[in-house]
Structures are given as C-alpha cells and as structure tokens.
C-alpha cells in the first residue's frame, strides 16, 4: 500500500470509508466475485496475499477494476482501492524508469489511473494486473520517448504487448512463453535482455525449461537443441553461459527492485 497520502490518498481513511459504508458488500450485489467480502483486512487482503488462490485473486481484482472503470460505474473508492493494491509493482517500475525523469511514482500512478478508468474489463478478464502493468509501462514510455521523424532510428518503438508485432519480436516470444501469473519472471528476463544478455540465449533457456516440464516429451534437451540448430554439446555450453549471464543480471535486478 502507499504510505504517502499524496499518491493515492490515505489508505487508513479509505479502509475506514469502505468498511463504514460496507462498500464491498454493496459491490457484491452486482458482482458475485466479491461475495462474502466486507472487511478489508480480514476478508479481502488475505485473498490477495502471496500464496493465496491465484484464480480467486484474479477474480477479485477484475471485479474491482470493472467497478472502477468508467463504463462499470466509475466508483472512486474502487479506483483508490485498486491503486493501493497494485502499489507493489508501481515502486519497482518507478525505479526501472527513473532515467526518464523525476517523480516517476506520480507519473506511473496517474497513467495507471487512466488505464483503470478505460480498462476493457468485459473482454480482458485474465491477467488483469499483468495487463495493467504492461499497458501502464508502455504508455509512460510512449509519453517520454516518442518516435520522431528526425530521430526515428534512435527512438524506442513502443509496441502494444498484445499485438502481433510485439509477439513476433524476440522479447515478445520470451514474454509469451511464460505464464501470465509469472509477471516477475517475465520482468527479470526482459531486464536481463536490456542488460545485454543475448535474447536468443534467453529464449533458449525458456524453451528448455518448458520442454523439460512437458512429461510427454522424451529427450527434451535434444529436441530443443534441434529447434535452435545446435549440436548437443554446443547446446549445453550455450545454456550454461546463458544461465550464468541471467544470474548475474538477476543480482542487479533484485537490487533495483528491493
């Protein structure tokens, strides 16, 4: 949660207001994904904590975003509650984008507010938190690093993370290969790529772990080596070097998001 009241209002005051008016109970009348929720600390937060049922947490967040969206009622308390609940990735993202300017937390929260208000909650029902994160990051980058005719070769091209153009890129293929719920792993792999780890090497790691997890495949390492056009011994050398590089990058990543 945000402890600075200037970011998204007072968390304590918001909780008191929600519980005094039984907002969660009222919202549940129109959305049964919130059924049984009344108290924020006792009922809501345990269902969203680490280790809780991911599908249930996704349903709850989707219901809150739908309530906060303009075409879902535009409820201000639902918006503030959602902002506070997503604060765990706002801070790390602000650290990652700190080179763009000062006050990035405020910039990100402002953009996240716009994304929530306009979120197509009726059609995008899965990976709501991950979608909001990618959409917010893309929008902030587009604002601070726009492409220009004069410097098109130097500008960062921002792609919609749901577009075929993004999925066709090496980084898009890496992100698509990881489950929606593993947004931290996606973030780490993308961080490693930006840090200079070869994108093909990262893709090799991801594909290898995918194949090894598939019990229907026999000699999965040989299959992956063939996919990447590598002899078996070369495959293992490439994989070992890629692992070392990602591990080295992960130390910087953990230091940045701590």
For the biggest sheet, the summary is: none
Q: Name the overall outline.
A: elongated
Query: Radius of gyration, Cα only, in angstroms?
Result: 21 Å
List SSEs in N-to-C order.
HHHHHHHHHHHHHHH
Can you give a write-up of this model?
The protein is an all-alpha fold. Helices cover 66% and strands 0% of the residues. The chain has helices spanning 5-8, 11-20, 23-30, 40-48, 54-68, 76-85, 87-96, 104-117, 128-144, 164-167, 170-176, 183-194, 199-213, 220-227, 232-257. The radius of gyration is 21 Å and the shape is elongated. The model has no long low-confidence stretch (mean pLDDT 81).
Descriptors:
single chain; 258 residues; mainly alpha; 15 helices; 66% helix
Summarize the structure.
The chain is mostly helical.
SSE layout and pairing:
Elements: H1 5-8, H2 11-20, H3 23-30, H4 40-48, H5 54-68, H6 76-85, H7 87-96, H8 104-117, H9 128-144, H10 164-167, H11 170-176, H12 183-194, H13 199-213, H14 220-227, H15 232-257
Helix pairs in contact: 2-6, 5-6, 7-8, 8-9, 11-13, 12-15, 13-14, 13-15
């Amino acid at each position: 949660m945000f402890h600075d009241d200037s970011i998204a209002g007072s968390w304590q005051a918001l909780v008191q207001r929600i519980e005094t008016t039984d907002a969660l109970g009222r919202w549940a009348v129109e959305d049964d994904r919130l059924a049984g929720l009344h108290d924020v600390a006792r009922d809501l937060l345990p269902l969203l904590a680490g280790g809780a049922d991911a599908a249930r947490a996704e349903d709850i967040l989707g219901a809150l975003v739908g309530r906060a969206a303009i075409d879902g009622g535009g409820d201000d308390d639902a918006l503030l509650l959602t902002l506070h609940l997503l604060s765990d990735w706002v801070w790390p993202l602000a650290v990652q984008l700190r080179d763009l300017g000062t006050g990035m937390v405020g910039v990100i929260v402002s953009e996240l507010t716009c994304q929530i208000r306009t979120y197509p909650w009726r059609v995008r029902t899965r990976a709501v938190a991950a979608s909001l994160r990618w959409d917010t990051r893309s929008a902030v980058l587009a604002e601070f690093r726009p492409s220009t005719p004069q410097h098109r070769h130097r500008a960062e091209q921002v792609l919609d993370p749901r577009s075929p153009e993004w999925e066709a890129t090496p980084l898009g293929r890496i992100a698509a290969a990881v489950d929606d719920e593993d947004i931290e792993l996606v973030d780490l792999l993308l961080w490693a790529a930006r840090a200079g780890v070869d994108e093909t090497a990262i893709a090799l790691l991801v594909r290898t772990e995918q194949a090894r997890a598939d019990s229907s495949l026999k000699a999965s390492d040989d299959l992956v080596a063939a996919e990447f056009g590598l002899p078996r011994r070369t495959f293992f050398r490439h994989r070992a070097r890629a692992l070392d590089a990602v591990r080295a990058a992960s130390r910087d990543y953990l230091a940045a998001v701590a």
